[in-house]
Amino acid sequence: MTSPVTASDSQVYRLATTYASVCVALLTLTTAANAHDEATLRHFKTVLWPTAYRTQDTELLDRLLHEDFELINADGERSSKQDEIAYIRDNAWDPGEFEYRIERLDIYQGSLAIISGTGVAETYTYKSSNVLIKEDGQWRAIASHVSGVERDESAGAD
């Protein structure tokens, strides 16, 4: 009869410390990847997306929006990626000073993100929520909802 193989205390210790080191390394890599994705998403929402609308850059908007993109505006109307591209091609957007304030940015499993916040222009504010997906290493918006548009009637009045 063969005796069972038993590990010495030192072997168990080495195995446990190796396992812990691998876990820490994976966590570090995941944290670094999430930090990079978070920075990319902040730039996407606060710089690139407003720039596409402000400069009527249809090529940029085409890269930012997923083929299945859908916007639901404050009136409950739906528009597709092609509708949005046609809109910015035909309509200048000049909100004056503009800032998008991110109030939520969550990344799920490295490939799905939710960004919501408040758009603040010179004469109005609005709330929006956006869903983005990462495919082939690129983040693209697949859904957006705008609501709570409030106009500042006193803006520009002297």
Which helices and strands, and how do they pair?
Layout lengths: L8 H46 L3 H7 E8 L5 E3 H10 L8 E10 L3 E9 L3 E12 L2 E14 L7
Helix pairs in contact: 1-2
CATH architecture: Roll
CATH class: Alpha Beta
**Residues in β-strands, percent:** 35-45%
What is the percent of helical residues?
25-40%
Distance between the termini: 99 Å
Q: Tell me about the biggest sheet?
A: 6 strands, mixed
Number of domains: 1
Order of H and E elements: HHEEHEEEE
Rg: 24 Å
**Bulk shape:** elongated
As residue ranges, the low-confidence spans are none
Order of strands, widest sheet: 2-1-6-5-4-3
Instruction: Enter the CATH topology name.
Output: Nuclear Transport Factor 2, Chain: A
Mean pLDDT: 87
Number of strands: 6
Brief rundown of the structure:
With 158 residues, the chain is an alpha+beta fold.
Describe this structure in words.
With 158 residues, the protein is an alpha+beta fold. The chain has one domain: Roll (Nuclear Transport Factor 2, Chain: A). It is 40% helix and 35% strand. The protein is built from 3 helices and 6 strands; from the N terminus they run H-H-E-E-H-E-E-E-E. Strands 2-1-6-5-4-3 form a 6-stranded mixed sheet. A hairpin with a 5-residue loop joins strand 1 and strand 2. It is elongated and about 90 Å long. The N and C termini lie far apart (99 Å).
List keywords for this structure.
Nuclear Transport Factor 2, Chain: A, 40% helix, six-stranded mixed beta sheet, elongated, 158 residues, alpha+beta
